[in-house]
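To assess whether the prediction recovers the assembly geometry, we first specified each molecular entity separately, as shown.
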Amino acid sequence: MNNYDKNNILNLLDSVSPDNADLLETLHIIQEHFGYLSKEALEIVSELLSLSVAHVYGTATYYADFRFVPPPETIIGWCSGPACLLKNGVGIRDAMLAVFGTELGEQLDNPSVEVCMAQCNGTCEQAPQIWVNNKVVGKLTAAKAIELARSIKEDI
Amino acid sequence: MQQDYYTLRAQADIEYSIWSQPEKPRIDFAYDTSSIASGTEEIMNKLNEKLINENHQIETGVVAGYGLQYLNPLVQITFTDGTTVLYGPVTSDNIDDLINEALGNNRNPLDITIGMLHGNRNDIPTIDKHSFLQLEEERRLTRNLGFIDPDLINHYIARDGYLAVNSIFEKKLTDEEIRKEISDSGLAGRGGAFFPTGVKWGFLSSASTEDKYLVCNADEGDPGSWVNRILMEGDPHSIIEGMIIGALGTFANKGYIYIRSEYPLAISRMQKAIDDAYSLGILGQNILRSNFSFDLRIIKGAGAYVCGEETGLIASIQDSRGMPRIKPPFPANSGVFFNPTNVNNVESFASIPMIMRNGSNWYKEYGVESISGTKLFSISGDVKKAGIMELPWGVKITDVLETCGGISNNKPFKALQAGGPLAGYLPSSIAGTLELEPNQFKEHGALVGSGGLVFISDSACSIQLNLLFSQFVEDESCGRCTTCHGGNQRMTEIFRRISRGNGRIEDKANLDIIGNTLLYSNCVHGQASPTIMKNTVSHFADDYEDCVINKKCSGDVCSCPGLTKLIIVDQFDKKLDEAMNICPTGMIKKINGKYTINMKDCIRCGACIELAPEAIKKVSDGTTQEMPEFIPRIFSENHKSLTPHSVLIEPSSITTNVLVRGEKSLSGMENMTI
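The predicted structure of the complete assembly is given in tokenized form:
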């Protein structure tokens, strides 16, 4: 699955072509398959789309979605939307960060986890919420978030 | 082989009539992002399993949610007589009830019954009598929610879908006539700028290049707004039809729908809709046997808020960083791949088919003098009932709040934050007098924006909200204009300092300078980023002064470390042990039988108060000590996932350097200006 070999990548990208608004889609396809964008992958993309590696890298790093190292096992997306903020969203964020002893957006190895900022997608009836590996955990409180974070930490 | 509209319609009518009056009763789950968040999938799987195991003569299906999100998960049952009833909130415990209900075995109506969507049955009240929907006059944009399976193009066609496109071909309407109809309707850009759509199309139609682009802006980044998601997940074909009509009115031959990546279901539904439209000859070459061709594809965004600005969006489509640029040239002259381009909002496109079908006068039945039609609003925040409403322009804010059940926990209504982090923050004394109408908001230095209404109770802390919104605009600044990325950094630093109890009397003047400087940014992101700050300083002057000068905050949920402190009021409360154990920083200690909280390193998350509400209280009496030096811990951009492959400098050293330098230069600026 995570075999970053050139043919493997090329097979995924048979439909993309230069000057066809394909860069974002290409990066999404690679990240979906491998979990992150490796240096090799970015070089192949630049060749395929006739763009410089610097351009591809510059574009990829501009967007919050893309990762450049293998992702952790657990990604906790903290909703930064206003409805969540009004219900102690900040307390929930800081509590989880304190349990893991990490910063927002910092990837930890042990436990393999990252708490990152995520954007409101309009499920505000669940506020305050987080996403644990893209699954919504809604109607949280600081205490519940701490328990959840501790259970993730102890599982390792 | 292309088919004509009437052949397609005849097939669709047959399919839809079977669906709307099925042979076996059918249980439809509302399947959209909101209901998935509330656990629909699990209930759906359990019910399907049970139906198979017990061999019930019941079918299941999928619809889009009706907008009553606070009652999620929603389920609707269509009976064999063609009547449809809506239920919610459904839990796993209700599965047997639903099966019995579908089979007609229940003598009494279920207590989760919401209302009749269609027909009459057992005196269940119709859905339009529902308290949450009392302000809605008529569902126009959302007319298909609950009435079609959004994944099936035939359901859309059977409900007069693509009729407007066909009648343009039949009546041989010219582009001018199409634009006139749209202009007459008074439709104004629903993204928040409210520029007349017909006029905008006129700019594109006059361009004479080979390729012209129509772009649908579905990068709905404003936190608290999700109206475009509802349309894409609930009625994707209405947007495609609107784009085809837009193409006919502007001679565009290529189209893009740019959808933010946070909406995976909307992307897959739109993709399915586009594929289906291609396969029926509604998109592509010679649409519906005409000599008109239009190609449409989806671009999936990648998490950048400024791509919602039209030039940023265009840059993002053409393989680049989504950085807005100076206008002119306007997109109508030079847009996607330097070809003439129009960028319109999802809701604008979704409004087009009904205007063409029913005429501009019909569309103007609702609305006010300055703006016509209906608009979707997403309501959230400190309200009892969150969800979507389709309202005519001109509805009173207080009526909306009342319909949502008022502010939760019976707190007073403090403020309204409408239309995202660039649009404004108005106190209840002003918001309570307003109607939903763009000009009324403008008078008070705020905007209606794209349709998000966040009601805020007086538990909220203005400084904390400001800090988070300014962090948001700082984080999402593309970085092109120093005014924007630097200005928002300074603004964030000031609010962060105030939240740590180190507010200074000169902050107000500095914020004023920053606010005025930001106006010189190139795009609307920078220009509008100080709106909420300005609103706070002018409309919440008491609140602001209290936090800055007196180091006090009136908000219950305030977790500003320098404005609040926790005190133990009852040493004998048995719950204190629990509170001590939950503390994530270990700052509650028991020394010689006495509990103490170390306020210096307490993060004010509030978990201990939650577990021992009688023993621990949060107070803000101005006696909190100023927090020691500022330690950056969040929103540093140099985290591991963004570390370049070849950079040799340790990321941690970058963080410190950048932020410390920022702090120092700020104090330098103060000395110069005050």
